[in-house]
Amino acid sequence: MTANFSAARQNISSGGAYESIFGYSRAVRVGTDVHVSGTCAPAEHEQSDAYTQTRAALAIIEKALADAGVRLEQVVRTVVYVRDISDADAVARGHLERFDAIRPASTLVQVASMLRPWQKVEIEAYAKIERE
C-alpha cells in the first residue's frame, strides 16, 4: 500500500556516510511535520564526553531543522538514547542548554549499544510548523 500525502515531501541530507549506506535522510519534512533521524556526534568527537557529544548532535539537528525551514523553537519532542545511564546528567545538561525555554516532550532511555562503540548519545527530534 502506498501512502497518499497531499503535502510535498522534502528530504534533508547532512552528507553523513550512513545516509547512503543505510538509505535514510537526516530529516524529512511533510507538510507541517519535520522528523529528524537519530543523530550522534560525528567521528571527530570519538574522545569526547557525553555532554560534548550531546552538544555536537544537537548542532547537527539544528542545522537539519534549519535546512527544512524550521527553528529549534518549533521542536515538540525529542527522544534521547544513551549507552550508559550514568551519562544521563551530562546529556540532560546539554539538552537543557538548547531546550530550556522550549521544553519539548522528551524521553531518555538507555540502550545496549550504538553503531560505533565510542558513541555515547543519539537524539531524535520532531518539530511542528504552525502553518505551511
| Structural class by helix and strand composition | alpha+beta
Strand order of the largest sheet: 1-2-3-6-4-5
| Gyration radius, in Å | 15 Å
What does the main sheet amount to?
6 strands, mixed
Weakly predicted, low-confidence segments: none
Instruction: Tell me the CATH topology.
Output: 60s Ribosomal Protein L30, Chain: A
**So what's the CATH class?**
Alpha Beta
Could you state the order of secondary-structure elements as H and E?
EHEEHEHEE
- The CATH architecture is 2-Layer Sandwich
Pfam family, one: Ribonuc_L-PSP
Protein name: Enamine deaminase RidA, house cleaning of reactive enamine intermediates, YjgF/YER057c/UK114 family
InterPro entries: RutC-like_sf, YjgF/YER057c/UK114
